[in-house]
Design goal:
There is one protein chain. The protein has 3 helices and 3 strands, in the order H-E-H-H-E-E. Strands 1-2-3 form a 3-stranded antiparallel sheet. It starts with a helix and ends with a strand.
């Protein structure tokens, strides 16, 4: 992957103990309030909704290098 191509596989590239990670936690209820009855249930369809709805209210929390910011 990209981390290996940059010779950074020891510090990034996977969610392992001791590696750096930037993570955004999304609230699925905000992304699709009707998801239980929605026909769009696949992961990529949900991701598409996140991208096209573009609302900060979807973000539950943000972690940068493992530290919670929001």
């Amino acid at each position: 992957g990209g981390a290996t191509a940059l010779s950074l596989q020891d510090s990034i590239g996977s969610l392992d103990v001791g590696k750096n990670a930037d993570i955004v936690v999304i609230d699925p209820e905000v992304v699709d309030p009707m998801r239980d009855s929605s026909i769009y249930t696949k992961s990529l369809e949900q991701l598409s909704k996140c991208i096209y709805r573009n609302s900060s209210s979807m973000v539950k929390s943000v972690y940068i290098q493992g530290e919670k910011l929001v």
